[in-house]
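WARN no homologs supplied; continuing
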Amino acid sequence: MSAAATRTTGQDRLWSVDEHLEDILTTVRPLEPIELNLLEAQDCVLVDDVTVPLSLPPFDNSSMDGYAVRVADVAGASEEFPAVLTVIGDVAAGAADLLHVGPGQAVRIMTGAPLPPGAEAVVPVEWTDGGLGGGPVSGMRARSLAPEGATGQVRVHRPAEARAHVRAKGSDVQAGDLALAAGTILGPPQIALLAAIGRGTVRVRPRPRVVVVSTGSELVQPDEELAAGQIYDSNSFALTAAARDAGAIAYRVGAVADDVDTLRSTIEDQLVRADLMVTTGGVSVGAYDVVKEALSGVGDADEAGGSVEFRKLAMQPGKPQGFGLIGPDRTPLLALPGNPVSSYVSFELFVRPAIRTLMGLPDVHRPRTRAVLKADKALTSPAGRRQFLRGTYADGTVTPVGGAGSHLIAALAHADALIVVPEDDTSVEPGTEVEVVLLG
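OK structure emitted
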């Protein structure tokens, strides 16, 4: 059944978790690719394969500060009988005009500098007297302070094998190799590789902009005084942080009172900076659940061909849900329940995959595994509902944390997994293998 067809009957039936998720993922489309500078592309998803235009490193170079030598000239060298070589000059990183190392000669070389022609190995400066005529030294004198260190003689106290302390051309990557595959998330190491192969810009799908709006006249911002009947707004903080964790650029909007006009105006104002909107609260069946009423005409949705449908899902927690497209740009909106655990579980199951879909990632879901239930008593679950319980996962076992109540946010803070109890199971005994969603 198509998304459009299901929306016409969605409020008249109980949706499964999988049906609701499929409707979301078949509606949400990846954002259009754009070309960005490297640092602006951080945490974005690469659109095209990137191949290596030149080998890395592009030339043989030294991995140590020391002396470039011929192997035969230092064979058998020791502190008692050092090899005495004539230093004919310096080669620093970035040098272009290189001296040729002949028999009995050495070139003082810096880390990253090209290996001079004729040289076969590098001996670290610690294996030498540094040109001072004494025992082993711990480092080189700065050229600005002692330019004469690039001439004269050096005593080498240890032999070196061919190619010792030399980074070979192409030892990192070869020209023509695949540097990064399409679908890669660009973190710091990937940005470094792109810069190293000379790419200043790259084509990516931008990070989605997600606006989080919490609703409820009882909500107060942290650090403010609580009056009778009020609670602190935690949902907007949790969901904004979760959206950022999923890869989005997330904007948190302070709690909006249970007033239809105020909520509608807030959402319309926020559409300009949203690729995805998330609301929390106001989706149940109470007299003050105003999200459904407010979203009925946001941004001239009907004229733009968009709509938001509110439905009941066969799950616990998180039965009331809303999804649709709003505004002239048909921006996806997911309306989540207001209880903290319901809200967070709904985010993990539905919003996170939507964000990852907007990013263009091939795998949008949290990893899942099987684990043995470790509990003092059997878990109970309502018939016909897929239950998601908080738990901690370790070494192939999972232990419930807290109870099933959708308000138990303290237990959520200690959980790193969701225990999945299928719709047909009303009781799960300790020692039973269960499906687990890994949140870490």
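DSSP finds nine helices and 29 strands in the chain.
OK
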